Amino acid sequence: MATHYLSPSILCIILATLVSIVGAKVPAIIVFGDSSVDSGNNNFIPTMARANFEPYGRDFPGGRATGRFCNGRLSSDFTSEAFGLKPTVPAYLDPSYNITDFATGVCFASAGTGYDNATANVLGVIPLWREVEYYREYQSKLSAYLGHRRAARIIRESLYLVSIGTNDFLENYFTLPDRRSQFSISQYQDFLIEIAEVFLKDLYRLGARKMSFTGISPMGCLPLERVTNLDDPFSCAQSYNNLAVDFNGRLRKLVMKLNRELTGMRIFFANPYDIIWDIVTKPDLYGLEVSSSACCGTGLFEMGFLCGRNNMLTCSDANKFVFWDAFHPTERTNKIVSDHFFKHLKNLFH
């Protein structure tokens, strides 16, 4: 009977893979949210909210438009790399990946979505509850792949990244009449906080214990909001920024409450307001030059299909810009923000 031996090099590869999956303190990055962290799920649903065409992705490895609303990588990709995992987090709905890829990182996020189901309905994207259902499905696949005990450990030790909320205000509440007829802006924030609490408790019940929960940025400084600011054209819309500060305050209180109530749960509130405000108002301190307009097209209103390959006005060097399109930051800005928060995350979770 022949005896088969594994060569030392193959054995090393197998051991290294097992160590990365089972031995790392953060064995995987699991992502929920909107276009700030969607790595391509919307490519596989019938929606206009897509970015799987040039010039999106032109600075991504291989120059490939993956569906990320960026010229390159997202903050979630950089966070994964910083924890010693893959340099990109794959989209769950992308059929070119499978559970072997998702064992060290997976993204359920969908561009255009929000806490509010009505926000997802605007562009026909994945609602937050459905992201959670995909996560349940992922858990079953992970258990089948690794066995229940190892899968449970990955679920427990993974870092969960959540980035969502801006669309509820800009795409839904201030754009369409339904929610404004039902809620004052303060009531609508309370409504969103209630949904966020249910969502976070659902993830806790499903096994999540380590989380980076992102607030919302100074959304009045997005190029699209500057150009439509009728009170002071091309300046940041102060009312939207004030709202972001208010909503972040409510999110922070929710995080403090859940950290007290949920045994073993550690939620880091990643409030992006101050760092992004700093980048927007003092771009030169970060090696950037332009913060009032974006790289793509005129830099004032283009995003999605309007930011197409034939737009001759698109900048040649996105690394000089804070924003890639009228709504989304460049890879350079994503890296700065990710690095800013990683200093805290590695102390909490590494």
Automatic annotation (TrEMBL):
- Enumerate the Pfam families for this protein: Lipase_GDSL
Q: Which domain of life is it from?
A: Eukaryota
InterPro entries according to UniProt: GDSL, GDSL_lipolytic_enzyme, SGNH_hydro_sf, SGNH_plant_lipase-like
Signal peptide stretch: 1-24
Q: What's this protein's family per the entry?
A: Belongs to the 'GDSL' lipolytic enzyme family.
Protein's name according to its UniProt entry: GDSL esterase/lipase At2g42990
Q: Which UniProt keywords apply?
A: Signal
